[in-house]
Design goal:
The chain is an all-alpha fold and 149 residues long. It has one domain. It is built from six helices and no strands. α1 packs antiparallel against α5. The longest helix is centred in the last third of the chain and has 27 residues.
């Protein structure tokens, strides 16, 4: 198995385990209750997710060498999104937040587990479907945050 796959799966497992076990991270917990921190970290996480969508779409029209570069950046942003999710919310939460807190790591894990060679259509369809759900869920989450504040 590729090293990057093991790293990402380890990050996904660590996020989910520490979140459901409710492990407290002192200073991070203090930051996460601050409204300004939550909004800015959420903004950064949203930009990271949207950048991945833009890169995925740009890859379809780019030349082969540029497409490979976009793919590498897309994958790095996926791992960055996991870190951003942890910094934004160290536990998955309940309801929609639980869905998003599980959906993003699942999306990243599916992306790194996709085969390097061979028929990848089913992987791409599942990855794209999860990406659409994720973007829709993030949009709903942002709307809910600002509608109730």
């Amino acid at each position: 198995m590729r090293t990057e796959v093991l790293v990402v799966l380890g990050l996904v497992a660590a996020y989910l385990i520490q979140g459901f076990a409710e492990v407290a991270w002192g200073p991070l917990d203090a930051w996460q209750v601050d409204e300004s921190y939550r909004r800015w970290s959420g903004f950064a996480l949203t930009l990271c997710i949207l950048a991945q969508v833009v890169l995925a779409l740009a890859r379809k029209t780019a030349a082969a060498d540029r497409s490979r570069l976009y793919r590498r950046i897309h994958r790095l942003l996926g791992v960055g999104a996991l870190l951003g999710l942890f910094l934004h919310s160290s536990s998955p939460g309940h309801g929609l937040l639980l869905g998003l807190g599980v959906l993003l790591p699942a999306q990243v894990a599916l992306g790194v587990l996709s085969p390097v060679e061979g028929d990848r259509r089913r992987w791409r369809i599942a990855h794209t479907l999860l990406a659409c759900l994720l973007v829709g869920g993030v949009a709903l989450h942002i709307w809910m945050v600002f509608a109730w504040s």
